[in-house]
Specification:
Radius of gyration: 13 Å
Distance between the termini: 25 Å
Strand content: 25-35%
Order of helices and strands: HEEEEHEEHH
Shape: globular
Helix content: 25-40%
């Protein structure tokens, strides 16, 4: 199981990423674009994910992934139960959500530095 602190450690190293507390919810943004957000009780992590792929993701692992709330269906967004994620999977989901928000050259530079 991963925690908000695990995500924070990763997100704090991603270029242009910033953490915000909005309405008692921890969110990570690039500029004004939120790429990861947590439920108030920190049991659910919402993250940027291609709209056209999310139904397949949720169908493949319904115990782990959830469709976004109805008001968020118009966005490229999906949710995951924190208790079901491992560290490697969280790293991939958060990094890919961040990648969707930054210019390609920023992502390329980050990957080249790894």
């Amino acid at each position: 199981m991963v925690t908000v602190d695990d995500v924070r450690r990763l997100a704090s190293r991603l270029p242009r990423s910033s953490e915000h507390l909005i309405r008692d919810r921890v969110k990570f943004r690039v500029g004004s674009i939120v790429y990861v957000a947590f439920s108030r009780d920190e049991t659910i992590m919402g993250f940027g994910f291609p709209k056209e792929e999310r139904e397949a993701l949720v169908a493949a692992e319904p115990d782990k992934f959830l469709m976004p709330e109805e008001r968020d269906l118009r966005y490229q967004w999906v949710q995951a139960r924190m208790s079901e994620l491992d560290e490697g999977e969280m790293r991939e989901l958060v990094t890919e959500a961040w990648r969707m928000c930054v210019p390609k050259k920023v992502y390329a530079a980050y990957m080249a530095a790894l």
